[in-house]
Structure formats: structure tokens, C-alpha cells
Amino acid sequence: MHLGSLPYKTKQFFLLLIKLSIVVGAFYFIYKKLIEHEELDFHVFLQFLKENNIFSTKTTLFLLFLTLFNWFLEILKWKILVTTIEKISFKNALEQSLGSLTASLFTPNRIGEYGAKAIYYPSGKRKKIVLLNFLGNMMQMSTTIIFGSIGLYLLNSKYELDINYLKVSRFLVVIIVIALFTAFGLKQNNFKIKGVSIERLIAFFKSISAKTKILGLVLSIVRYLVFSFQFYYLLTIFGVNVSYYNAMIVITSMYVLASVIPSVFIFDVVIKSSVAVYLFTIVGVNDFTTLCIITLMWLLNFVLPSLFGSYYVLNFNLSKDTNL
């Protein structure tokens, strides 16, 4: 929607409608996902949490600490990346990260996050903000793929999974062909993305210092280890007798498999549930416990931050020289 030609007060009115739509939509989808979960009754889920003392002060505080630490690392990474083009405070990075989470909650593969973060900046900087967000996401995805590939290899070596190698080979061939055509396209001088030439994109990424890239990657790795440990901690809380090593093999495999499946983000919990149930069955974890852990991880790391993010969405205001 282009509102640049409208009077400032009219733009503010339309902006209010957009903000309310985002927040109401996010709350509605969260409610639907919790109450109408096909495989997990919400009341049974709550009772199971009570029986396992999830709501005890010690357990609750530790889980919340891991959630806060997880998002602290993500917010810090965003602050560091944005500093390459504009200095912002940690508070600004917090607002942009949580606000964009809420705005992207029900968009395919969190695509709405790109536009939500870009709107905080003048139009002249938005393309760079989109690219920085892409870089940050690729850092996290690279971490997931590296750890997940190791996890899948160890999982297959340890438990001899029933893998259809013919189908896997076909899939890899398709990926390689797509990659080759993409590489060929990128070499064409007239190839552009959103009006930006590949040469300019490469030059922009090269202009970011190695220190910034390394620091961003380190923060992505630490963040990955934090939420993976949180998953393992929940396994122990629910009485699952599995070693940290074996648990991490399955957890890393689960995250990489769930990450490569396109999804609407609000239903990401469904995809992770299906993948997790299959993988954790291998190490003897029952389906119900796995579903409860996946749901709780989703509540802690996405729903809870998005509720705080709704505050920033509702309080977002355009400056008079900012266009939508």
C-alpha cells in the first residue's frame, strides 16, 4: 500500500487500522492454534504442565531466563548489523525485533519481518535494512544447517534410519540444477533483484566488516545452543531419560528438517511437531510429551515475545517525512 500522497493525518488513520489488524490477527491465530490444536487438547496440556511442576518458581524463572537470553542475543545481533549503516540503541533494536516478530507471526516463512523492520527507517535506507535482515537470517540458517547436518549424520549412523536414498538423490539433483541456473543468472550483468544489481548487492555485503560478520555468526551459534538447551531442559523436566548427546542429535536434526519445509510461521509449531514426533520416537520419547515440549517452546520463544511486540506495534508512529 502506497500512502505517500495522502495527508499526514489520513496516513496516521490508515496506519492505526494496519496496526490494529496486525495485533488482532496475531492474537486470533495464537488463540486458534492453542484452542483448536488437532493433536493436543489445551486443557490436557495445561494439566500435564502442572503435573510436571512447570509452574514452580524455580522452573518458570529458569525457562524465562533462557527465553530472555535467546532474544537478547537476537536483538544484540540486529543492533550490531544495523550499526553498519546507522547507530541505534539496544532499546531501538528491541522495539524493531519484537515489533517485527508480531507483524510477521502469520506471514509465510516470516516474510513480513523484512517489511516491518524496514518501515522503521527512511525510504533511502530500507533496501539496506532488508539486506541486513536477510544477512542475519542467513547467519541463523547457516548455523541450523551446519549443526543439523552433523546431527542427521550421527542420527543415521547411530539408529540406521530408513531413508529412501533414491528420493533423496532426486531432491539433491533438483537443488543442484536450481543452483546452477541461479548461478548462471547471477552472472548476467543485467540481472537485478528489486531494481538492485547483483554487483551492488555483492559490494554491499563486502562493505560489512569481517568483525561484524564473525560477531553476528557467533551470536547466532550461541543463540542456537541456548534454545537447543532449553529444549533438552524441558525433556528432563518431563522425565525423559536421554543423555544430552543423544538429545542434541535429535534436536539438531529436528530443527534443520523443520527449517527447510516452507510454512506459514504460525503453523511452524505443527511442522516441528510432526518432525519431532517422528524423530523422538526413535529415542523412546512418547508422542504426547514431544507435542507438549514443542508447544511450550513455541509459547516461550515466539508467542510470549510477540505479545510484548504487540505493544511496540500499537505504539509505532510515522514521522511526517516518512512514507509507506
Core attributes:
two-stranded antiparallel ribbon; membrane; transmembrane helix; 12 helices; 324 residues; mainly alpha; 2 strands
Descriptive overview:
The protein has one domain. 74% of the residues lie in helices and 1% in strands. It has 12 helices and 2 strands. The chain has helices at 8-35, 42-51, 57-82, 90-104, 112-118, 126-159, 165-187, 198-207, 210-237, 244-259, 268-282, 287-314; strands at residues 192-193, 196-197. Strands 1-2 form a two-stranded antiparallel sheet. This is Lysylphosphatidylglycerol synthase domain-containing protein. The chain crosses the membrane at residues 12-31, 54-73, 130-156, 168-186, 214-235, 247-270, 277-300.
Short description:
74% of the residues lie in helices and 1% in strands. It contains 12 helices and 2 strands.
Write the SSE topology.
Blueprint: H1 8-35, H2 42-51, H3 57-82, H4 90-104, H5 112-118, H6 126-159, H7 165-187, E1 192-193, E2 196-197, H8 198-207, H9 210-237, H10 244-259, H11 268-282, H12 287-314
Antiparallel strand pairs: 1-2
Helix pairs in contact: 1-12, 3-4, 3-6, 3-9, 4-5, 4-12, 5-6, 6-9, 6-10, 9-10, 9-12, 10-11, 11-12
Transmembrane segments: 12-31, 54-73, 130-156, 168-186, 214-235, 247-270, 277-300
Subcellular location: Cell membrane
Keywords: Cell membrane, Membrane, Transmembrane, Transmembrane helix
- Percent of residues in helical segments? over 70%
**Span of the ends, CA to CA:** 7 Å
What portion of residues belong to β-strands? under 5%
Q: How many structural domains in the coordinates?
A: 1
Q: Give Rg in angstroms.
A: 21 Å
Helix segment tally: 12
Report the principal-axis shape.
Answer: globular
Side-by-side strand order of the widest sheet: 1-2
Strand element count? 2
Overall mean pLDDT stands at 82
* H-E string: HHHHHHHEEHHHHH
Pairing-aware structural class of the strands and helices?
Answer: mainly alpha
Largest sheet: 2 strands, antiparallel
Runs in which pLDDT lies below 50 for 5 or more consecutive residues are none
